Amino acid sequence: MLTIYQSLGGRVQAALGRAFPKDTYSSKESGYILDPQLVSASKPEFGDFQINGALQLTKILKKPPRDIANAIVEELIRDETFLEICELPEIAGPGFINITLKPQCLIRELQERINDNRLGVPSIKYALEGQSNPPVIIDFSSPNIAKEMHVGHLRSTIIGDCLARVFEFRGHQVLRLNHVGDWGTQFGMLITHLKQVAPEALSTVNAINLGDLVKFYREAKQLFDEDKNFQRNSREEVVKLQNGDPLSLKAWRLLCNQSREEFQKIYDRLHIHLNERGESFYNPYLKEVIESLNESGLLVIDDGAKCVFLEGILGKDGLPLPVIVQKRDGGFNYATTDLAAIRYRFNNSPKGDGACRLIYVTDAGQANHFAGVFQIAERANWIPKGARVEHVPFGLVQGEDGKKLKTRSGETVRLRDLLDEAINRAEADLRRRLSDEGRIETEEFIAHVSTTVGIAAIKYADLSQNRVSNYQFSFDRMLSLQGNTAPYLLYALVRIAGLARKGGNLNAAVNELLFIEAQEWELIRELLKFDEVIVNLEEELLPNRLCNYLFELSQTFNRFYDQVPILKANEPYRNCRLVLCRLTADTLKQGMTLLGIPTLERM
RNA sequence: GGGGCUGUAGCUCAGCUGGAUAGAGCGACGGUUUCCUAAACCGUAGGUCGUGGGUUCGAGUCCCGCCAGCCCCGCCA
Predict the structure, then answer these.
(1) Between the CA of A59 and the C1' of B57, what is the distance in angstroms?
(2) Residue A525 to residue A110: CA distance in whole angstroms
(3) Which residues contact A210 (CB under 8 A, 6 or more apart)?
(4) Distance B26 C1' – A37 CA (angstroms)
(5) With contact defined as beta carbons under 8 Å apart, do A189 and A223 qualify?
(6) Strand B nucleotides within a 7 Å radius of protein CB atoms
(7) Whole-angstrom Cα distance, residue A394 to residue A415?
(8) A439: left (phi > 0), else alpha (psi -120 to 50), else beta?
(9) What is the CATH number of the domain that holds A558?
(10) Minimal CB count within 10 Å: which of A23, A495, A572, A579?
(11) In whole angstroms, what is the distance from residue A302 CA to residue A321 CA?
């Protein structure tokens, strides 16, 4: 309904101007435009849209709100274009104006949707003919080499993928960057330790598995904390690596490759595509960061370390908080890498990506870090005019006890175990239902359905929550067949596929769309909201808004399906209803696709 | 000490730029199936929106104080 909303907005604004020409004129002079406040109706009984402005304008216009509302309405009903799309407006309460769209208008809109594979969602316009848009960069997932992916990577990976899909659908060029932790002191530790206990791992492909690597990593960390000699050796090892020692580099590459393969298994299961560009990629640009900061006068040497002091952010002592960009020993740290990354991503090719928008999907705990880094980038003039850089934070994954999610033995939960368990539980549910209903299905079917449902449940549970707050992980809730869950949405689609199997032609050509039931109109109105939801998502970056919409659409559809006969209806109603079913299926499928969730025909 | 996030029904959570009587789902209680998958639908009960002020025609939403929980705060990422 975006286009309707926009054209209606113009009509209403014009009506307000005609009703109060003097005030509109004088307020234009003062740079202030009278706002009629046209918004979607807050409740179905108020129609499709409402004008709230009359209440607020009392002060400027010095008239009671109902008089203002009356004046606006009088002008509106003189507008033929308005009357073509809307019923007569109604004034309600203290001065709200309720607007209901005419059925023909909704039908026309519906007709357009049916023939539009974008379902009404506008595609962004390219700046120049033949030129591609500057990319939007989404930085997400970012596991660490030599560690297994765990529950802490879940949200970033799922939310980041969803946002990337939305931007792609809107027509942006998207760069999905996996900023893996592939550099730094941990490699010194690990290589030093492996040299002693498992030297073959440093020279032979796949000599040890990732599980062992994780064990070795843990041991190395402990040695590093306890043993001075080990610490010194590790530091030397890092220096060797950073200086490009061939043996060290070879070992490092082996370790990275091995981790990469493991990560890829998880990404494949989740149907997530990423471009790996780890921290090490920015090594050649670290020095330039320091130089550039020095040139712009931001660099300060404090206690031997090179820092930038932040504005407006104070440390414990009440003094401005420093961000260390080069350590006393000459080493760089993560802030430097992040700064180099921002610089590179905004820079133009060949030494950059030429991005217009930069999005970081990481946990909320890094908010301070990013605020600092963004401030430095801003002050160093690395962010081009009109470009945006945003941190998209999310809360912790908690167990049902409200604490950080752990295994029974108190360890972090591995992602693959989490996926396995969801799938196993989905399979058990499915088998129980099959036996209850006396259905017989192939093992292939069972495997496919359980995998799809299990993964969908995990993704949907995460995405359907407002990402800012912490999120309580519960297999029972996410796999539940009722409520705002993946299985509920998938089931709505299965019902529609069922209609097609029972002889309903979802693609029947219909000359004239004809609807007579309230449930049909509810469904139509819900379907027409899709474009607005997607466009808002691009701005607000809150996937739960899309989930909410899809859930409401499913509910509205289920009510329609339950209360209105479809296959048993007479023509022309039968075909018209099938058209609604088809558009519902298309919308649900597109919505789920944007969430990164594949759908099913039967389950 | 400074900063960030959170606090809404018994539980898990929505609530977009301030708008009409604060909404879902689960759980509880009650109902619906000769009919397209009942994995559904319909109904009932359940609230001092942490708390105290302020801003205004109007506040869950904006501002200030306080309380509680979680997270971050110079050489880890």
Answers:
(1) 9
(2) 9
(3) A148, A258, A259, A262
(4) 37
(5) yes
(6) 1-7, 12-17, 19-20, 24-27, 35-42, 56-58, 70-77
(7) 18
(8) beta
(9) 1.10.730.10
(10) A572
(11) 12
Q: What is the mean pLDDT of residues A255-283?
A: 93
Average pLDDT over residues A167-181: 95
Closest nucleotide to residue A562 (Cα to C1')?
A: B41
Find which nucleotide's C1' atom is closest to A400's CA: B12
Instruction: Point out the domain boundary residue: A394, A424, A456.
Output: A394
Say if residue A286 is in the same domain as residue A323. Answer: yes
Report CA Rg, chain A: 29
Domain carrying residue A20: 2-101
Distance, in Å, from the CA atom of A571 to the CA atom of A183, rounded to the nearest integer, reads 67
- The DSSP letter of residue A143 is P
First-to-last C-alpha distance (Å) of chain A: 33
- Total number of domains constituting chain A: 5
8 Å CB contact between A230 and A211:
no
How far, in Å, is the CA of A25 from the C1' of nucleotide B16? 31
Residue A150 DSSP code: B
Question: Which tops the pLDDT comparison, A547 or A329?
Answer: A547
Question: Same domain for A390 and A425?
Answer: no
Q: Is residue A106 part of a domain?
A: no
Asked whether residue A385 falls in the same domain as residue A286, the answer is: yes
Report the C-alpha gap between A461 and A454 in whole angstroms: 11
**Residue A177 belongs to a domain:** no
**Could you report the per-residue pLDDT of A181-228, keeping only the tens digit for each?**
988 777 888 888 888 888 888 888 877 777 788 888 888 888 887 888
**Statement to judge: residues A498 and A603 lie in one domain:** yes
SS3 call for A363: strand
Which of A19-28, A372-381, A509-518, A536-545 bottoms out in mean pLDDT, i.e. has the lowest? A19-28
DSSP state of A351: S
The DSSP result for A501-554, as a single string, is HTT--TT---SS-----HHHHHHHHHHTTHHHHHHHHHHH--HHHHHHHHHHHH
